[in-house]
């Protein structure tokens, strides 16, 4: 994402002009947009034309519109973002108040105006425009007949490819057909993996049994045979890990593996997994120092007890402004009092897990008695 212009007043009202440069930037933009915002962007509009003879035709024209945002639709697999709203500035093609849907495009700028830019949204812009915040990890999660190629970025987990075939069973005295199909899978995976070699910091290859070892042996045997220098030079990036299956959900256990955590200690995704693990350990051993649910976490924040706040970015997409403001105040409160704030992506496996805890949890500096216990009611003593 490229920040082209920023004009925010002291009362936090203002606008920014951004240019999305890659698919992940659409996810960041989705998290910036809220109902009631003003969005100005180039778009295609179908217009009707009437010729001097009275015949009516239609054509598609490119125009720039400013919409008051009403609905926001994001396709996480295709990374496409569509914004529907009413037109705020009339032009020759579109009347004031007419409905239109803008599909934001890569490498085309847009201007977003808000009545109030809060700290969470401004942090999101900073993260999106940070050139160092690119893909951290690629993972090949596999088993016999199945392989998932997943890209783990600071903001989301993307399934880039899935290979699924039926592998013939080995027959006594001959396993030729079995090996042929396995080699075909390895060959296809090698081809799909190559574009990410120079981008990511680490490539995890995980499977039950020896499937991962067989794939790596094949991969580098072929690299030597074809003198593939890029693959050979990036061999240190590969890391073999055990997983219970070749399905995408196994990524959670892979990222929790201590050897993986150490290797990826400087990546955002691994940091989120580690923070969530620390929370669950605290919940098990010292439950008075592990709170979850908004009401309990707010009480802990009021007591200045929060050491680390874990919160899902999904909560900041709440369309009810007072509710969203409540989450923003919580984040600001924790930061102002020296606590750490980890905003989890709901498109990461750890973010999905945090959502099961109402999307917000906290590790405390000191224990606080269980807030769910009913307080003494003095009136109950009255006869």
From TrEMBL:
InterPro entries from the UniProt entry: eFR1_2_sf (IPR042226), eRF1_2 (IPR005141), eRF1_3 (IPR005142), eRF1_Pelota-like_N (IPR005140), Pelota/DOM34_N (IPR038069), Pelota_N (IPR058547), Ribosomal_eL30-like_sf (IPR029064), TF_pelota (IPR004405)
Q: GO cellular component terms?
A: cytoplasm
Keyword Transmembrane helix (UniProt): yes
Q: Which Gene Ontology terms describe the biological processes this protein takes part in? A: nonfunctional rRNA decay; nuclear-transcribed mRNA catabolic process, no-go decay; nuclear-transcribed mRNA catabolic process, non-stop decay; ribosome disassembly; RNA surveillance
Task: Give the protein's cofactors.
Answer: a divalent metal cation
Q: Where is the eRF1/Pelota-like N-terminal domain?
A: 1-130
Family matches, as SMART domains: eRF1_1
Q: Where in the cell is it found?
A: Cytoplasm
Report the principal subcellular site.
Answer: cytoplasm
Transmembrane domains' residue ranges: 181-200
* Swiss-Prot/TrEMBL keywords: Cytoplasm, Membrane, Metal-binding, Transmembrane, Transmembrane helix
Q: Which GO terms describe its molecular function?
A: metal ion binding
Family membership noted in the UniProt record: Belongs to the eukaryotic release factor 1 family. Pelota subfamily.
Role according to the record: Component of the Pelota-HBS1L complex, a complex that recognizes stalled ribosomes and triggers the No-Go Decay (NGD) pathway. In the Pelota-HBS1L complex, pelo recognizes ribosomes stalled at the 3' end of an mRNA and engages stalled ribosomes by destabilizing mRNA in the mRNA channel.
Q: What is this protein called?
A: Protein pelota homolog
């Amino acid at each position: 994402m490229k920040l082209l212009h920023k004009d925010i007043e002291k009362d936090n009202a203002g606008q920014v002009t951004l240019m999305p440069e890659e698919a992940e930037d659409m996810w960041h933009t989705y998290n910036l947009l809220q109902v009631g915002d003003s969005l100005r962007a180039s778009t295609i509009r179908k217009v009707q034309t009437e010729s001097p003879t009275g015949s009516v035709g239609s054509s598609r024209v490119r125009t720039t519109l400013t919409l008051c945002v009403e609905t926001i639709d994001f396709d996480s697999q295709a990374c496409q973002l569509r914004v529907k709203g009413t037109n705020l500035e009339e032009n020759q093609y579109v009347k004031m108040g007419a409905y239109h849907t803008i599909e934001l495009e890569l490498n085309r700028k847009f201007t977003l105006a808000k009545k109030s830019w809060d700290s969470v949204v401004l942090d999101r812009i900073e993260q999106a425009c940070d050139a160092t915040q690119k893909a951290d990890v690629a993972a090949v999660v596999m088993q016999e007949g199945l392989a998932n190629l997943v890209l783990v970025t600071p903001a989301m987990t993307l399934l880039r490819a899935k290979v699924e075939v039926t592998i013939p069973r080995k027959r006594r005295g001959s396993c030729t057909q079995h090996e042929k199909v396995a080699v075909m899978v390895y060959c296809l995976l090698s081809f799909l993996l190559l574009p990410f070699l120079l981008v990511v910091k680490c490539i995890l290859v995980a499977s039950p049994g020896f499937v991962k070892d067989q794939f790596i042996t094949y991969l580098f045997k072929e690299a030597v045979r074809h003198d593939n220098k890029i693959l050979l030079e990036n061999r240190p990036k590969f890391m073999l890990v055990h997983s219970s299956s070749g399905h995408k959900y196994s990524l959670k256990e892979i990222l929790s593996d201590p050897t993986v955590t150490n290797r990826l200690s400087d990546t955002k995704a691994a940091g989120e997994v580690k923070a969530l693990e620390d929370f669950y350990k605290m919940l098990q051993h010292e439950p008075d120092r592990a709170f979850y649910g908004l009401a309990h976490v707010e009480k802990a924040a009021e007591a200045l007890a929060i050491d680390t706040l874990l919160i899902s970015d999904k909560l900041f997409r709440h369309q009810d402004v007072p509710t969203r403001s409540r989450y923003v105040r919580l984040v600001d409160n924790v930061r102002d009092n020296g606590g750490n704030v980890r905003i989890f992506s709901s498109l990461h496996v750890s973010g999905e897990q945090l959502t099961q805890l109402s999307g917000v949890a906290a590790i405390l500096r000191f224990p606080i008695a269980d807030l769910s216990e009913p307080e003494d009611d003095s009136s109950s003593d009255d006869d």
